[in-house]
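Structure first, sequence second, as always.
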């Protein structure tokens, strides 16, 4: 079952970034699907690490692309990237310390953030990128 389905509304017109955004959606859907399985606590640890690993990779790639076109809002994007990374690190800390954490809340946070980030923020740099092409 999917919590997010890839559609044209997510396309920003930069093939590599669209591919990475599709992978983000797969990760979030995998996270959601695994909530129903047994041994959720151990699975949550694995999944949050996957989220963080991909977060670092994807944000690095986005920032390189934005830097290559001299994107004027790069600093703001970096701050947004730092903010979501800090939230994910806080989730990881809570999971590792066995603090009460509703995994569906984490999934919804990721889903909502991703939708907004792609459909609003990433479309801005995509417009700048395509204008420079």
């Amino acid at each position: 079952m999917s919590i997010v389905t890839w559609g044209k509304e997510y396309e920003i017109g930069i093939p590599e970034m669209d591919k990475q955004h599709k992978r983000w959606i797969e990760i979030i859907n995998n996270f959601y699907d695994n909530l129903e399985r047994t041994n959720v606590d151990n699975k949550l640890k694995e999944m949050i690490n996957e989220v963080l690993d991909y977060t670092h990779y994807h944000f690095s790639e986005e920032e390189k692309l934005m830097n290559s076109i001299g994107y004027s809002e790069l600093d703001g994007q970096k701050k947004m990237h730092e903010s979501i990374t800090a939230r994910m690190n806080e989730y990881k800390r809570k999971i590792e310390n066995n603090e009460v954490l509703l995994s569906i809340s984490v999934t919804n946070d990721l889903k909502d953030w991703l939708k907004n980030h792609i459909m609003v923020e990433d479309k801005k740099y995509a417009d700048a990128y395509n204008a420079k092409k």
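Margin note: The radius of gyration is 15 Å.
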